[in-house]
Write a structure and sequence with these properties.
Length: 182
């Protein structure tokens, strides 16, 4: 977690702080950003906050891709969604609602669509990024390494608080490896 610091107003998000938080979370997790298949965005549905959040994601992942020695993604592979479009903001419980949604998606290996998301915010540009908005429920396919082996599904969950508090957690599905010979 981090804090956005000074901003234009109490409710104005700081994209640099959000981007720094995302970079730190994925660097600390030690995972290749190309293996992240889903981000549960804070996604309040506002004209200001959502584009700032998406731009912070794009900036952070561009930096992470660069550190991993990868160029821009050939195609979008990381879904974006938000539980808020289904159940509202929930105030203090917003972050845990996002975590629960991701855990259920991992369990069922499906990315579920965000409701009321037929028309995208015109201020959000995803072209050339690893991201796409999950507008239809789809199978969540596992990423594969360079040798074609399945890797665990991975996701991130963002929760940004009133007044500049930022949090992001990286989640990975449990894969039972007992009994497997290497």
């Amino acid at each position: 977690e981090n804090h956005g610091g000074r901003a234009n107003s109490l409710t104005a998000p700081n994209p640099k702080a959000q981007s720094a938080l995302l970079e730190a979370a994925y660097a600390r997790a030690g995972i290749d950003p190309r293996t992240v298949g889903y981000i549960e965005a804070h996604g309040t549905g506002t004209e200001l906050g959502d584009p700032v959040e998406v731009n912070a994601l794009k900036s952070a992942f561009a930096s992470l891709y660069g550190r991993a020695g990868a160029g821009s993604p050939a195609q979008a592979h990381c879904g974006l969604g938000t539980v808020k479009s289904n159940i509202g903001h929930l105030e203090l419980a917003a972050g845990i609602a996002g975590v629960i949604k991701v855990l259920l998606q991992l369990k069922h290996r499906r990315l579920v669509k965000s409701l009321h998301c037929e028309r995208l915010n015109p201020y959000i540009e995803l072209k050339g990024s690893p991201f796409y908005v999950v507008q239809e429920s789809v199978e969540w396919k596992a990423p594969r390494d360079g040798e074609g082996r399945e890797l665990p599904r991975r996701a991130g969950v963002s929760s940004f608080g009133f007044g500049g508090a930022n949090a992001h957690v990286v989640l990975e599905e449990y894969v039972d490896r007992r009994g497997l010979c290497l």
